[in-house]
């Protein structure tokens, strides 16, 4: 089957660095995406990794290891506005071409 | 450029009633997706349109759900008759290409009482 695991909640303080891990199990892996969702809002695309390594976009970075079926999202210089849910999502080619999401990690940033 | 818009933002209906959700994708995006999130769980794939054709509807829960995209523009998702377990947030997303970034709408929160 296809599944993704990520922590349900993470708490960190303003200015700190936080890492949200994601492990996945899928037979037709194509790439790993990260989305941010504020309460009541639309999930917003943050980053995408198709190859092993680190992708950096401003304060956010995303890492992928295909051999370990593992990735993470790294948020630096945390700000209060980063409090949101973060979803990892796998692009999968099994029986079609779909995106499979994890259950999301709720990040609380404290002052 | 307008984003993905969904209507209504909230819908409260009774079990057995019918509800139709609408999604207007970003103009020029051939790919349109429906997802559902139930009770804080994962955002679950329902189906994928390429223009007006259903490319993959493997995530549709049962035949009470009907999605259409006539003319390849906006899409509707009808639930008939609605059951309690259909409650959740229904998201629509669109992308220019199959591999492209998916842009999401803010979702329709459906409550079936």
Q: Main attributes?
A:
A: 111 residues; mainly beta; six-stranded mixed beta sheet; five-stranded antiparallel beta sheet; B: 113 residues; globular
Number of helical regions of chain A? 0
Coarse structural class of chain A = mainly beta
Give the helix proportion of chain B (percent range): under 10%
Number of strands of chain A: 11
Distance between the termini of chain A: 41 Å
Q: What is the helix content of chain A?
A: under 10%
Low-confidence stretches of chain B: none
Q: What is the succession of H and E elements of chain B?
A: EEEEEEEEEEE
* Largest pleated sheet of chain B: 7 strands, mixed
Structure, described:
The complex is a heterodimer of chains A (111) and B (113). Chain A has 111 residues and is mainly β. Chain A is built from no helices and eleven strands. Chain A has strands at residues 3-5, 9-13, 18-25, 29-37, 44-49, 53-57, 60-65, 70-75, 84-92, 98-101, 105-110. The radius of gyration of chain A is 14 Å and the shape is globular. Chain A starts with a strand and ends with a strand. With 113 residues, chain B is mostly beta strands. Helices cover 0% and strands 50% of the residues of chain B. Chain B has strands spanning 5-7, 10-13, 19-24, 31-37, 43-50, 53-56, 65-68, 75-79, 88-95, 103-104, 108-112. In chain B, strands 2, 4, 5, 6, 9, 10 and 11 form a seven-stranded mixed β-sheet that branches. Chain B has a four-stranded antiparallel β-sheet with strand order 1-3-8-7, with no helix packed on it. The radius of gyration of chain B is 13 Å and the shape is globular. The mean pLDDT of chain B is 94. The A-B interface holds A 4, 30, 35, 40-45, 48, 87, 89, 91, 95-104 and B 3-4, 33, 35, 40-45, 48, 55-56, 58-59, 91, 93, 98-99, 101-107.
Brief summary of the model shown:
The complex is a heterodimer of chains A (111) and B (113). Chain A is mainly β and 111 residues long.
């Amino acid at each position: 089957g296809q599944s993704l695991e990520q922590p349900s909640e993470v708490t960190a303080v303003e200015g700190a660095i936080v890492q949200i891990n994601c492990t996945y199990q899928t037979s037709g892996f194509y790439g790993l995406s990260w989305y941010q969702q504020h309460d009541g809002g639309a999930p917003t695309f943050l980053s995408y990794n198709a190859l092993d390594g680190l992708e950096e976009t401003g304060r956010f970075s995303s890492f992928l290891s295909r051999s370990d079926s593992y990735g993470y999202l790294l948020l630096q210089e945390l700000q209060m506005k980063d409090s949101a849910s973060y979803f990892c999502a796998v692009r999968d080619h099994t029986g079609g071409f779909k995106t499979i999401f994890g259950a999301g990690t709720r990040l609380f940033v404290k002052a | 450029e307008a984003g993905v818009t969904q209507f209504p933002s909230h819908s409260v209906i009774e079990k057995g009633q019918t509800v139709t959700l609408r999604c207007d994708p970003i103009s020029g995006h051939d790919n349109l997706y429906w997802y559902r999130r139930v009770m804080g769980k994962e955002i679950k794939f329902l189906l994928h349109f390429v223009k007006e054709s259903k490319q993959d509807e493997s995530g549709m829960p049962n035949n009470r759900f009907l999605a259409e995209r006539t003319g390849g523009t906006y899409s509707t998702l009808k639930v008939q008759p609605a059951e309690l377990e259909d409650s959740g947030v229904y998201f629509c997303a669109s992308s220019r290409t199959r591999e492209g970034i998916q842009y999401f709408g803010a979702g329709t929160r459906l409550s079936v009482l």
